[in-house]
Amino acid sequence: MPAKIYSCTTCGLDGQIIEVEADLIGEAAKFIIVGLPDAAVTEAKERVRSAIKNCDVAFPRQKIVVNLAPADIKKVGPAFDLPIAISVLITKGYLELTKDDKEAVFVGELALDGTLRPITGVLPIALLLKDLKLKRLYLPAQNAAEANLISGIEIYPVKNLGQLLSHLKAKTLIKPLTKASTSNVAKTRQILSFTKIKGQRQAKRALEIATAGNHNLLMVGPPGSGKTLLAKAMPELLPTLTLAEALEVTKIYSVAGLLLANEPLITQRPFRSPHHTASGIALVGGGSFPKPGEITLAHRGVLFLDELSEFPRTVLENLRQPLEDGVVTISRASQSLQFPARFTLVAAANPCPCGYLTDAEKDCQCTPSQILRYQKRISGPLLDRFDLQIEVPRVKFFDLQSQTPAGEIQTILKRIDQARAIQLARFKQNIIKTVIYTNSEISNQNIEELCPLEDDGKKLLKEAMLKFHLTARGYHRLIKVARTIADLANSEEIKTAHLAEALQFRISGER
Under 8 Å CB-to-CB from 39, ≥6 apart: which residues? Predict the structure, then answer.
């Protein structure tokens, strides 16, 4: 009789149940795996054969056919080693599963000696089991803490194939893990970079606004003015992740294989800083079997592009759609996957090739044509997606010698947390189809309802549109920034002063 057990894989960031069927056919000693396997799955034949032999169990000397269903889904990776081994032993008659274990899910990579190695994508697998009301998950012991973040599932950590066989034959049972507590996932902020910032009052204010509302920030200035330090300080100002956000981020890093063994749950907001030589696929994700890129790894955190003008223009243009939609769609001939990309973009750039075009103390050595070519590397549509655009000047000697005012950071953090709380309360009170957390996520359709303006404010916006030739996108982003400034001031209304400050940041860094 054919044997059938359940395994699981990931498609994008979601789990997918896979049925692993095995049967003995004929007398020829062959081992065949069908069901659209990749090279890693095909090579499981040798790992399974050796692992079973090293558990002192005779491998069948008949033709073995293993089918991974559905057959039209590409099976990738070594996570099917364990279920293939178990299905073979069931078909051989060595094992007989209980009713509960027949509905269990098995995943894991086998070493030649039968040891289980960790796999990627365990959190999406555990979430799928909970949705499907499947109760048991057998997986490598090193992945157990990650799966244990999800309640309602019995997690069985397996060290090696021999241990699992002993458990399934009811000889030496494996104890399921006790549910881990995730009620207190937040950690206190670690303020390291912000206290090192000298001077730069306007830049600090822009950083505060950008953090409070998750607004994109562009900093332009000469070398050594502190642009990189300002960007690195932004994650320190961001509120700690909620449990829902932490699970979102952890799910992404689980699929990407970037989770640390001793930290199954990510509790700090991501800060990604790819080098300017990064390719478009590295930035947005992709590949023959699509994986998350830098913009998805920065989800709910910060993506910092240093030396923005040094990035190839074709690479930067890939950011335009994700910045608007908060998701990136990777389309291939066989499938189309969506990855979340709700990140804050922070970029730093020099104003010209030598970097001193805007410097008051050092002359620029570039020709007008060189400056124009350099600035044209960043397209107008991409610049329009930066809510805050500021110039970061050279730091003066007096500022370098000064001390950061006592309590400054705590005052800023208090205002940011207050503004975030106001935004969450506002979005809960209003009926909005999608879940949003910050002002930058407000759709254009909801702006009039959530961001009402005074008559004087409307007049100021009209003048700004005419004088500075703001686009419709720039108009809406200006109002969102003004909404954040009003929240920082604990004001229910967006006043003309808030709009004026938002407009100042909108145009001060334009080149």
Answer: none
Query: How buried is residue 132: exposed, middle or buried, by Cβ count under 10 Å (0-12/13-18/19+)?
Result: middle
pLDDT at 144: 95
CB 123 within 8 A of CB 101: no
Collapsed DSSP state (helix, strand, coil) of residue 77? coil
Cα(55)–Cα(228) distance, rounded to whole angstroms?
A: 55
284, 295 contact by CB (below 8 A): yes
**What is the architecture of the domain spanning 194-507?**
3-Layer(aba) Sandwich (3.40)
Structure confidence by residue, pLDDT tens digits, 362-394: 999 999 999 999 999 999 999 999 999 999 999
State which fold the 3-168 domain adopts: Ribosomal Protein S5; domain 2 (3.30.230)
Q: Where are the domains of the chain?
A: 3-168, 194-507
- Under 8 Å between Cβ of 92 and 224: no
Residues contacting 79, CB < 8 A, separation 6+: 7, 8, 9, 107, 108, 109, 119, 121
Instruction: Name which of 493, 459, 465, 492 is nearest 478 in CA terms.
Output: 465
pLDDT score at 511 = 47
3-class SS string, 223-265: CCCCHHHHHHHHHHHCCCCCHHHHHHHHHHHHHHCCCECCECC
Query: Of 468, 446, 481, which Cα lies nearest the Cα of 344?
Result: 481
Pairing state between β 116-117 and 109-110: antiparallel
Distance of CA 293 to the CA centre of its chain: 8
User: What are the residues whose beta carbons fall under 8 Å from the beta carbon of 457, sequence distance 6 or more?
Assistant: 482, 494, 495, 496, 499
**Dist CA 71 CA 434 (whole Å):** 34
Tens digits of residue pLDDT in 318-358: 999 999 999 999 887 777 889 999 999 999 999 999 999 98
